[in-house]
Amino acid sequence: MDKLIVVKIGGNIIDDEAKLSSFLQSFALVEGKRILVHGGGKLATRIAEAMGVQQQMIDGRRITDAETLKIVTMVYAGFINKNIVAQLQSLGCNAMGLSGADGNSIKAHKRSEGKASPPIGGGSLEGAVDYGFVGDIDEVNAELLHTLLQFNDAIVLAPITHDGNGQLLNTNADTIAQETAKAMSELYEVELIYSFEKAGVLLDVNDETSVINSINSSSYQQLKTEQKIFAGMLPKLDNAFAAIHSGVNKVIIGKAEELQQLIDGTKGTAIVNE
Questions:
Q1: How far is CA 145 from the centre of its chain?
Q2: Across 62-71, 154-163, 209-218, which has the greatest mean pLDDT?
């Protein structure tokens, strides 16, 4: 099988023009086929506030009402996606930007109102919350992505999906990366990289030298029980384990500025099967 690198880039990198530019230079130099999944950073929130559209967040997740959906679609699938594509083109990396609606690439369903929302990567259910027009993924069109990769160096995926009935949905980018990596593992030897502003999974969130080199399921459970992992990292780790248990060859979490070292396995935190 050919190798495929799926990279999720964190919002804090997208928010920093210099860091984003540096990351994309590294991404453009990665050998082989690549898929880049991005979120939206804080731009959508800033634009919404400027337009007088009140934003609600619950446990770090955006409540996506009808007006907010318009804004995140414009920002995520529009400006951010095409800005990334344009920068990659300037670096000699032929890239195609997509949302989930394009080519029917990612189908999802709207979370049922009044029911508990499924936590990222599985586990116990949360309290009853209506997240609005938020989607949980049903299917990633691996054949389409495979075909597009024959003609492009990279695909850039925005976190907007659709339900097949004309409704766009805002969808967690970490989950899109995980589900895309899983779907593509039928066709490629897939490596999934979660790149963000930290050096990896840290024992002390304020100490960049406290990186945990590798985590398996049993050590993860112990670290959670002992509350040694920053709570904001848990959804990302849940996604990582869901991927590694579903055919993805390798999952690494680490600093965006160290992308090649993450791919080489010399930096970051490796998520491993027992």
A1: 16
A2: 154-163
pLDDT in tens, 71-109: 999 999 999 999 999 999 999 999 999 999 999 999 999
Q: What is the dihedral of CA 238, 175, 29, 76, to 10 degrees?
A: -140
Q: How many angstroms separate the CA atoms of 139 and 96, rounded?
A: 20
Q: Per-residue pLDDT for 128 more than 80?
A: no
Query: Which class for 232: exposed (0-12), middle (13-18), buried (19 or more C-beta within 10 A)?
Result: exposed
62 confidence band (pLDDT: 50, 70, 90): confident
Q: Which amino acid is at 95?
A: A
What is the pTM for the complete model shown? Answer: 0.91
Phi, psi of 194 (to 5 degrees): -95, 105
Please tell me the distance from the alpha carbon of residue 107 to that of residue 158, in angstroms, as a whole number: 13
Average confidence score pLDDT of the chain:
91
Distance CA 48, CA 127 (A): 26
Q: Residue 55 gets which letter from DSSP?
A: -
Given a contact cutoff of 8 angstroms between Cβ atoms, the answer to whether 191 and 200 are in contact is no
Instruction: Give the torsion through C-alpha atoms of 32, 37, 43, 47, to 10 deg.
Output: 120
* Domain 3-271: CATH architecture, name and number where available: 3-Layer(aba) Sandwich (3.40)
**What are the angstrom distances between the C-alpha of 223 and each of 54, 64, 219, 253?**
37, 32, 6, 16
Coil vs helix vs strand at 208: coil
Q: Give the SS3 label for residue 67.
A: helix
Q: What is the pLDDT of residue 40?
A: 86
Q: Are strands 269-271 and 33-38 parallel, antiparallel or unpaired?
A: unpaired
